[in-house]
Amino acid sequence: MSIAHSQNLNVLLQEIEGIQLTFHNPRRLRADIAAEALPALLALLRGRASYVHLSAISCVDWIDDNQFELVYHLWSYETSVLISAHIRVPRDPGIYLSVFDIYTPAAFFERDIHEMFGLYFEGSPDMSKFILTEWNGPPPMRKDFDSEKWVMETFSWQQYHPDWLQELEQQGGGIVSTPESIRAGNRPMENKS
Amino acid sequence: MRPENYQAVNHPPSHEFELNFGPNHPGIEGNFALKVKLQGDIVVEARTDAGYLHRGFEKLMEDRLWIQNIALVPRICVPDPVPMEVCYSLAVEDLANIEVPERAQWIRVLQLELSRIAAHLFFFGGHAATTGMYTPMYWGVADRDLLLDLFEELTGGRIYSIYNLPGGVRQDVPEGFLQRVSDTLDYIDGRLKDYDNLFFTNQIFVKRARGVGTINQQQALDWSVTGPNLRACGLEFDVRRDDPYLIYPQLDFDIPTEQAGDALARTLVRRLEMVESIRIIRQVIKALPDIKGPLRTPIPNPLAWRVPAGESYARVESSKGEVAYYVVSNGGEKPYRVHIRGPSAMHAVQVLEKLAVGSRLEDIAQTIFSLDACPPEVDR
After folding, report:
1. Angle separating helix axes B263-287 and B361-370, nearest 10 degrees
2. Fewer CB atoms < 10 Å away: N or C end of chain A?
3. B59 → closest Cβ in A60, A75, A147
4. Do A123 and A161 share a domain, yes or no?
5. Both A112 and A67 in a single domain?
């Protein structure tokens, strides 16, 4: 990025109140702002700073802080700098604003985040199920959803003990340790029925 | 949706009727469906139905070591798996502040470009089949096989190579490998003329593809179209040049563009890209023997490797467009969060839904294939 571009961008971004800018490297700029200021920042970047490409919206579940972090990755074809705008929204009640009116592709990412994290975006055109059409459980990408535990509770185990395995075991071979026993610290194999 | 969960709906009398296009349909790419509403044979509404390939990679990756995830990522895009490995590795290297040795970077570029040619051969074979021409499909798949042989020799795996690791690549190129790459490229280069006669300048295809699924520049930018599909609208943008990674700045290559933005232009851009990829690989073949040095920067014990806390957004130009990985670490042995942005997530859902409206039923398959949509990138 040229120095002139960089200065212009800096001046422009200072219009947003409480913005914190950090350059991770010359082509990656991190912007931390309050959740209320994000639509204004995006409108500014798209309207006046050539940031027309919304690369992605990522969601991170910071369960210890009881917050979702939303990261809007924006790319400018002219300045060749990627701005990642970070905001935090409370996990409960988990509602935020859609930026579909500023960036059309946001609709896909917002629908995806709603499905995977349960964060609702007000004003997004379509919040219906997309990938997990037949899933009625909690949003699976949340950190408090333990997929292994869910599998253990939902599916039943079947004993697989065919004749050839029994023969092997009589000769002193066979399955020495199951995945469960390894996880539990190499306990001797349990007989589940 | 599974058949047992389907419930019949009584629709009011209408001139429109609904048609399920996919998931098992020769005109759809992989396990992906499109529900179209038709008036006669004109599409009035199209809704994508994804999820048939959802394997929950992002969740699985949170439960595995940094190094284990390398075995997962190539499965996200079957026709073009190498950019996935490289992009994940780039993100982790950025987080851990690892410098990749130069030789490894050159080998990665070699592999990336071979993968691009293979993916394009696969792509145009598929696209030809949607217009009723089956010969290019067999030719494309057969010639792609020669490149897969090279992958097998280099990495041990024909499709999923699991060859790039954070820090570098697994092993050096075998003896005589570069010569065999060169021979294969000569062969493919010679075949391009046949492909032109058979497919790219074939009037059956040209007349059929012209004007199908047209995107203009403004729409392409508004809908986050990337890669060859963006370049088919006349915008000269390529992550390799504008957000460079590895040793791409040292290489000499052009970025082909077309103006029309329709299915024909998107195919021709990919045809021209094959030539550029061959050019890049020839430069690599020439330079690689003189570049000495290690193949990877040693990382700490991979089974107990704690990557410093932070976040990184890595981007790579795949054959389909911009692949990006957003990787977050909290200083643990496993990633805290990995978000994968596949280019087809845009192309196969939003762009396709818009382009399909107003087109004829028989053009949908062509629109999908010309966008080179890869369903597993949508589902992840």
Report:
1. 20
2. C
3. A147
4. no
5. yes
Domain count, chain A: 2
CA-based nearest distance A52→chain B, Å: 7
Burial label for B293, CB within 10 Å (0-12, 13-18, 19+), is: exposed
Distance, in Å, from the CA atom of A27 to the CA atom of B33, rounded to the nearest integer, reads 38
What whole-number percentage of chain A has pLDDT above 90? Answer: 16
Residue in B2, B221, B341 nearest the CB of A52: B221
The pLDDT, as a whole number, for residue A71 is: 93
Q: What is the pLDDT of residues A48-62, one digit of tens each?
A: 778 889 999 999 999
- Cβ neighbours of B45 (radius 10 Å): 14
More confident residue, A10 or A163: A163
Domains of chain B (ranges; CATH) run 3-49 (no CATH), 57-379 (1.10.645.10)
Q: Examine the domain organization and report whether A63 and A131 are in the same domain.
A: yes
Which residues from chain B sit within 8 angstroms of residue A103, using beta carbons?
A: 224
CATH number of the domain enclosing A121: 3.30.460.80
Residues of B with Cβ-Cβ distance to A61 under 8 angstroms: 337
Domain region containing A85 = 3-139
Assess contact for B325 and B87: CB atoms under 8 A: yes
Is A2 a residue whose pLDDT tops 70?
no
Q: Answer yes or no: do A131 and B223 touch at CB < 8 A.
A: no
Query: B10: which 2 tokens?
Result: 């009584």
Q: Is the pLDDT of residue B6 over 80?
A: no
| Per-residue pLDDT reduced to its tens digit, A36-88 | 888 888 888 888 778 889 999 999 999 898 999 999 999 988 888 889 999 99
A111 and A166 share a domain? no
The average pLDDT across B181-201 equals 90
Query: Are A52 and B58 an interchain contact pair (Cβ–Cβ within 8 Å)?
Result: no
In this prediction, does ipTM exceed 0.90? Answer: no
A131 plus A161 within the same structural domain: no
Cα separation, B2 vs A164, whole angstroms? 36
Domain identity same for A69 and A162: no
* Residues A90 and A21 occupy one common structural domain: yes
Q: Is position A193 within any domain?
A: no
Angle of the B102-130 helix axis to the B135-155 helix axis, nearest 10:
160
Contact A105 B378 (CB under 8 A): no
